[in-house]
Amino acid sequence: MGLRERKKEQTRAALSWAALRLAVERGLAGVTVDEIAAEAGVSPRTFNNYFASKYEAIVWRHLDRFAHVADQLRTRPTTDPLWTALTDAVRAVFGTPDPAAPGPPAEWTSGVRLLLAQLELRGEFVKASATAERELTAAVAERTGTDPDRDMYPRLVAAAAGAAVQVASEQWLRADPPVALASLLDDALRQFAAGLPDPRSV
Amino acid sequence: MGLRERKKEQTRAALSWAALRLAVERGLAGVTVDEIAAEAGVSPRTFNNYFASKYEAIVWRHLDRFAHVADQLRTRPTTDPLWTALTDAVRAVFGTPDPAAPGPPAEWTSGVRLLLAQLELRGEFVKASATAERELTAAVAERTGTDPDRDMYPRLVAAAAGAAVQVASEQWLRADPPVALASLLDDALRQFAAGLPDPRSV
DNA sequence: CAGCAAATTTGCGGGCTCCGCAAGTTTGCA
DNA sequence: TGCAAACTTGCGGAGCCCGCAAATTTGCTG
Fold first, then answer.
1. Where are the domains of chain B?
2. For burial by CB atoms within 10 Å, which of A60, B109, B125, B175 has the most?
3. What mean pLDDT do residues B59-77 have?
């Protein structure tokens, strides 16, 4: 990867980071594109070369991870059962459950929690993860030999994985005392794989 | 319901309908708020009294249905198993599967399909259904005796239902020959309830 | 290492969005 | 019938987002 592309990724990360930090500090509405650009040391116009909106910039960091789940899934042996492979893929991206892993400082998570409560970001989240989910749909279709145009199955699986990431992230922000995100993800995937049985009947 | 509220609902529906129709005709970017307002016979400023954006106006009609699933779920006897009750609730809102039900004209569905392919609307969709999903989460929590703040379960179920509506709607638009939306919804919910088993192993 | 082509950044301009505010209009009720 | 509450509307303004073209930076090649 040449200097050019490295610098681009660096700028993109700086913008996304600045956007998230400023939004946590001042609230979603209290930050303008101009400020984000200034914080990252580029012109406001350049901001829009990287992101179509400030919302997109804010969610980019998180979604960059989910985008790699499909890649990981493709590296798993096709002899593994689907849900085993899928769980492993998610683990590879988000980390293995480790109860001792410390969470980020409470000040930060409470700020992020407030942010994510904003509906604009929920929407942006899904919008941005649509690409990742499409990739995942394709990977699941290959692995299971289904046709994504005719069968809903691969899209339902991808949607379930996306929902798991979404719900687990929320729970992670809400958890008191803090819990490792990886454990929550594991749990959510397990419940999906079990068909979300009514806990009363267990 | 007084004349006042009836007129409000009428205006809201007219705006949403005008927004959808114009967007199908000219594409999402090719329609402005001014045109939508003119089409509905109100001032541009009034449009924003009803909807915060044109995207919100477009998806409102569809989401108005999903918003009532939680209400329906609450009317089902608590002796019914959760997934039975949930499927019934969805059926009550979206109709019972009827293979003979004719779909809308191909011209319209292809237009809507193009619209929904736009990521902006995907995002708006979820954003708008977040409220409905929160309601559904609460209803599921009551029924299953779980605590939505501590257990991910009710939120996972609500997310699954939302994903079912989403994926089934997509498939409905894509289906050729046309299929009834209700059948697809039924199918999607069934798959979720079964834990999305790998079709190879069936 | 000079110099060129391609990629990137930047400023400018413009159309559009969304909202607060206050004045005007309609509705429900007594 | 008349008044208070609710709704609509125009205005003004801050901000967003993008196309365009000029300026700058980078990677490559002779």
1. 1-51, 55-195
2. B125
3. 88
Minimum-distance CB partner of B127 among A120, A187, A195: A120
A41: nearest nucleotide, CA–C1' criterion: C9
Q: Is the shortest CB-to-strand distance from B10 to strand D under 7 Å?
A: no
Q: What is the pLDDT of residues A35-45, one digit of tens each?
A: 999 999 999 99
Name the fold adopted by A1-51. Arc Repressor Mutant, subunit A (1.10.10)
In terms of Cβ atoms closer than 10 Å to its own Cβ (0-12, 13-18, 19+), residue A75 is: exposed
By C-alpha distance, the chain B residue nearest A84 is: B198
Are A1-51 and A55-195 equal in CATH topology? no
Q: How far is CA A30 from the centre of its chain?
A: 24
CATH topology of domain A55-195: Tetracycline Repressor; domain 2 (1.10.357)
Q: Do B200 and A145 touch (CB under 8 A)?
A: yes
State how far the Cα of B21 lies from the Cα of A145, in Å rounded to an integer: 38
* Alpha carbons B179 and B51: distance in angstroms, whole number: 32
Radius of gyration of chain A (CA): 18
Q: Tell me: the pLDDT tens digits for B88-127?
A: 999 998 888 776 666 678 788 888 888 887 878 887 887 7
Q: Side chain identity at A133, as an amino acid letter?
A: E
Summarised one tens digit per residue, pLDDT across range A126-174 is 777 888 888 899 999 999 999 999 999 999 999 999 889 888 988 888 8
Alpha carbons within 13 angstroms on the beta-carbon side of residue A99 total 0
Find how far residue B15's CA is from the centre of its chain: 18
